[in-house]
Amino acid sequence: MTTKHEQIIKYIENLEVGHKISVRQIAKELNVSDGTAYRAIKDAEAQGLVNTIERVGTVRIEKKQRSDIERLTFAEVVNIVDGNVLGGKAGLHKTLNRFVIGAMKLEAMMRYVEPGNLLIVGNRDNVHRISLERGAAVLITGGFDATEKVKQLADQLELPVISSSYDTFTVASMINRAIYDRLIKKEILLVEDMLYTKQELIYLHEHDRVARFHEKVKETGHSRYPVVDDSKRVVGIVTAKDVMGYTADDLIEKAMTKNPIVVTPKTSLASAAHEMVWEGIEMLPVVNEQKRLIGVISRQDVIKSLQYMQKQPQVGETIQDLSFRGFEEISDRQGNIMFRGQVTPQMTDSLGTLSTGVLTSIITETSLRVLRRLRRGDMSVQNFSLYTLKPVQLESTIEIAPKILDLGRKQAKLDIEVMHEGQVVAKALMTAHTIER
């Protein structure tokens, strides 16, 4: 039986794109409390089904595929630039293909204005009108208003006209930053990216007999299954090892491991892999917000996906990449690998010395690069101890020398020294787990 929360989510999914909803409307139509409606709408927003805009309301939007994650909707642009919608609210759910800065003459500008674009321009009424007629939305900078004719045209064409108090350069930078952040996010694999929703879901019920477990093993060839209750909520995991010593008539709930580790579709694959390796787990159940089973992932599938992503080009740069930019690999007299780089202004704290956080990031990255040469697969840092001995000033050249103390099949220990002008300025001790297939 579905809950009221799930009924609301299903109702929202069936609404047309662009439909406006509210807490009161949902509560009245589905006969639920305002609180239940509010929580469900927030959940729908987290799932990418709706978007809430200040002074406009909540609008049903098209859920984006991972391939389109870098494409912003006009509703998201409103939130990014702290904008005010002057007209064309019905088109807020549409996505923009690209934005054009209108810092040129009208004739030259119109060569770049196409359907699906967003024109960023100041208080040029004629430009606003022509842009809408060509199928492009308008973002007016400097806090200026639009004429009533432009607002009416925007409503008629369902193309948003947005006003922002920021200047053109700031607005363009904010939108560009949002797209850039999404490109990085796109490269982070989530459990939902490898979850096969069309595949038959195999599980056992807590009131099943152990005999049912043996039947499933013969049918599928698998040796571990999630166990659910009457509401399909995950209550345990049962494996071939668990049922040893139990008769065929014993209940599964007696043999299963209770309160298992579960993941959600939004869990990163790196986190899932860490849980599997650290806890020695071969399979993890995937659950929704109500803790109901929606799929399973295996350790082999997770590692395959992570290894595939390692071969793909990086689109956006993370803080880790930016911190390590400018460092080069060198070798000392004994042939040991070292890394040399300069402390840039972005790497310093308020006192002008190398930030502890950046130092930790650089040490971690150099150590993992050394380990990857010796081990295939991904690495996960388990313990890290940093000892800062001396402050490192801006524009100082530092050398980082990771030394492997112990390298086992699944674990590695390293001692890392950071040197400046031949003196040790920081030391670290790190333990990492190797994730192998």
Automatic annotation (TrEMBL):
<dbReference type="InterPro" id="IPR010766">
    <property type="entry name" value="DRTGG"/>
</dbReference>
<dbReference type="Pfam" id="PF00571">
    <property type="entry name" value="CBS"/>
</dbReference>
<dbReference type="InterPro" id="IPR036390">
    <property type="entry name" value="WH_DNA-bd_sf"/>
</dbReference>
<dbReference type="InterPro" id="IPR036388">
    <property type="entry name" value="WH-like_DNA-bd_sf"/>
</dbReference>
<dbReference type="Pfam" id="PF08279">
    <property type="entry name" value="HTH_11"/>
</dbReference>
<dbReference type="InterPro" id="IPR051257">
    <property type="entry name" value="Diverse_CBS-Domain"/>
</dbReference>
<dbReference type="Pfam" id="PF03061">
    <property type="entry name" value="4HBT"/>
</dbReference>
<dbReference type="InterPro" id="IPR028979">
    <property type="entry name" value="Ser_kin/Pase_Hpr-like_N_sf"/>
</dbReference>
<dbReference type="InterPro" id="IPR006683">
    <property type="entry name" value="Thioestr_dom"/>
</dbReference>
<dbReference type="InterPro" id="IPR046342">
    <property type="entry name" value="CBS_dom_sf"/>
</dbReference>
<feature type="domain" description="CBS">
    <location>
        <begin position="256"/>
        <end position="312"/>
    </location>
</feature>
<dbReference type="InterPro" id="IPR000644">
    <property type="entry name" value="CBS_dom"/>
</dbReference>
<keyword id="KW-0129">CBS domain</keyword>
<dbReference type="InterPro" id="IPR013196">
    <property type="entry name" value="HTH_11"/>
</dbReference>
<dbReference type="InterPro" id="IPR029069">
    <property type="entry name" value="HotDog_dom_sf"/>
</dbReference>
<protein>
    <submittedName>
        <fullName>Predicted transcriptional regulator containing CBS domains</fullName>
    </submittedName>
</protein>
<dbReference type="Pfam" id="PF07085">
    <property type="entry name" value="DRTGG"/>
</dbReference>
<feature type="domain" description="CBS">
    <location>
        <begin position="196"/>
        <end position="254"/>
    </location>
</feature>
